[in-house]
Amino acid sequence: MSVPRTARARARAEITREITDAARRQLAESGAPALSLRAIARELGMVSSALYRYFPSRDELLTTLIIDAYNALGDAVDAAVDAAGTPRAQWRAISNAVRQWATEHPHEYALIYGSPVPGYQAPESTIGPASRAGIAALTIVHRAWESGQLVEPDDSLTPELAAQSAAIATVIAPGLPQVVVARVFIAFTQLFGAVTFELFGQLNNSMDPAGPFFAYAVDTLADLIGLPA
Fold it and tell me: Which of the listed residues 13, 37, 56 is the one where a domain comes to its end?
């Protein structure tokens, strides 16, 4: 049974939301390296000392923004997978959800997948949220493999890459062949590469509009993984 929040807890949650909303506006206007607690305090009409009671440092605020962004993307991916049927349809759903979320939240996407913020070191608390979309991709592939639907490649990996892939499979997708794990990682990094190229204008005057190219890339990557048509 959930416990009702006190008025103080509700007020704190509301002020925290106002601070993070103002921080996201700063991201859009100036970028993450310029994020300033003092500027946010001025915008909200707060004294800096009051804001520091919610976020003692810029890095703690950045961490909250990063975790929120990863979780928002993870929620979008999970919802898309739940609405899809076959493994290939689920892969398409993940891919399209990533692209749509990035298009609708370009500055938050840039925060988590763009250039690192100088002087900021992400803490371990970001790892779980950052892994959600990748785990979703590996999970649908794992299910396809368990059900006998996956077309397994017959190529081999170097010992180092095989060990890395085996370690990932042990935690997320037990039994999944190492080469399949490696191919999922290739597909996932290429997916985000395509999204990043489109979002940051690298496809202008070439694959523009990017929709047909993106759809073709997504299906080509599904073939690479071995997902049935």
Answer: 56
Residues 104 and 168 in one domain: yes
pLDDT tens-digit map of 21-36: 999 999 999 999 999 9
Do both 177 and 202 map to the same domain?
Answer: yes
What residue type is 55 in one-letter code?
A: F
> Do residues 108 and 181 share a domain?
yes
| Residue-number span of the structural domain to which 27 is assigned | 1-56
Give dist(CA 183, CA 156) in Å, integer: 11
Do 44 and 91 lie in one domain? The reply is no
Cα 143 to Cα 97, 154, 187, 212, 219, distances in angstroms = 20, 19, 17, 28, 18
Residue type, 63: T
Q: Which residues contact 117 (CB under 8 A, 6 or more apart)?
A: 32, 33, 35, 62, 111
pLDDT, residue 4, reads 60
Question: What percent of the residues of the chain are helix, what percent strand, and what percent coil, each to the nearest 5?
Answer: 70, 0, 30
Distance CA(173)–CA(7), nearest Å, equals 44
- Kindly state whether residue 61 falls inside one of the protein's structural domains: no
Do 48 and 144 lie in one domain? The reply is no
- Under the phi-then-psi rule, with left for phi > 0, alpha for psi from -120 to 50, and beta for the rest, what region is 50? alpha
Q: What is the pTM of this model?
A: 0.92
**pLDDT tens digits, residue range 119-160?**
999 999 999 999 999 999 999 999 999 999 999 888 899 999
What is residue 3's predicted lDDT score, i.e. its pLDDT?
52
Total number of domains in the chain: 2
Are residue 78 and residue 50 in the same domain, yes or no?
no
User: Is the predicted pLDDT of residue 187 greater than 60, yes or no?
Assistant: yes
